[in-house]
Amino acid sequence: MLPIVVLCGAELVNVLGVTVVVPALPAIADDLGTSGELVVTGYAAAFGGLLILAGRLGDRLGHRRVLMAGLAVFATASAAAGLAPSAPWLVAARCVQGAGAAAMIPTALSLLVAHAGDRHARAVAWWTAVGAVGGGSGFLVGGVLTDLAGWRWVLLVNVPVAVVLAIGVATTVRPAPRQPGTGLDVAGGATVTAALIVLVLAVSANGPAVVAGLAAAALLAVAFALVERRARDPICPPETWSDRRLTSAAAVALVNNASTGAAVVVAAGYAQRELGLSPSAGGLVLLSFNAAVIAGSAIATRIASGRPARLMTTGLAAIAAAALALVAATAAVPSTATLSAGLALLGAGLGVSAVGSTTLGTSGPERRRGMSSALINTGAQIGTAAGVAVVLALTGTGGHHTGWLLAAAIAAAGLAIARPGATSPARRAGRLGAC
């Protein structure tokens, strides 16, 4: 149990790394003279762009070794960011911090699954719940630290936390087997990393930069495909793309975060503009979403044990229903209660679907579990960025109802990809045995 707690701690640190800095952005702007946008997007771009490379390195070099390296990079970059004398220094340190997080997450998830054994789904539920706790508490923790100690401690606090996690990993987590290979696919790693970084930046941008960024990302993706065709030991082995369980799980992770990320951003704006709540009061309303993610994760294994595809379809249906309910309920009874209730259903759906997609995606062979974890997290990261960017572009003219309708449409579209013939590994083995 202790290794699971330690490894979930890595997920908590990563999620906090994204959200905890947001309340400190005004103070950072006053002190260093930066708008703060790159402080957030720099971290997200480095994190999302390096996940696949980090997952492959974990498979090849050992997940615990790469996790420990990621913790060291994360701690060092956090210290550099907290002591930053200028805005460029801070942005650069945040990018390195995101790179450290990228090394931590797929390797920690791979080790968690390896330690969980036959409690795979339960461990994944813990992982999902911890992510929700980090997402919900990050704003509060960041605000409190900024008020009491200043914005620098929002970043410096990561240093002792990372040290404690490193000690926990070294003393409680056993190494996982490495995957043999002929060498590291440097060209493939470079092109896929560049493609993903440009894609995350593009979907987070505005105006013509979006089109230019998407075009550049597409060209880099083509270059990556050409490089992989000739690579002796490709960074993404061919069986990765032919595994319908994994590709479906990654696609559902993208849909999960695109739909719920969009809906929550719209809800935050609705709470302030339509209900007249202060930012802090609006944040408290949003806690119903995070609490429901935890609850949905906890009950996920009980409603469809061993059937991750059912978890995904159930969760996506709940997300779509919640988004539609928010449209109808806020039109009929615009109040804090109706908003909280809709967000709770939305969070429960995300918790159930996320457990299903992560369980399905990490149920493949242990030799490529790092790559599987990386692809799932990459889908989630890009889904968040894309969903939020698109909905903000549309709700500027269409209002909150348009945003929630878009979230419902995204979740409904996900139902078409949530049935990959995703029979659980145990049931599939039983069928083969019967033949």
Automatic annotation (TrEMBL):
Gene3D superfamilies: MFS general substrate transporter like domains, Multidrug resistance protein D. Keywords: Cell membrane, Membrane, Transmembrane, Transmembrane helix, Transport. GO terms for molecular function: transmembrane transporter activity. InterPro entries: MFS, MFS_dom, MFS_trans_sf. It comes from the Bacteria. One of its GO terms (cellular component) is plasma membrane. The keyword Transport applies. PROSITE patterns: MFS. The chain crosses the membrane at residues 12-29, 35-54, 66-85, 91-112, 124-145, 151-171, 183-203, 209-227, 248-271, 277-299, 311-333, 339-362, 374-395, 401-418. Residues 3-426 form the Major facilitator superfamily (MFS) profile domain. Its main location: membrane. It holds the Pfam family MFS_1. It is a multi-pass membrane protein. It is found in: Cell membrane. This is MFS transporter. It comes from Jiangella anatolica.
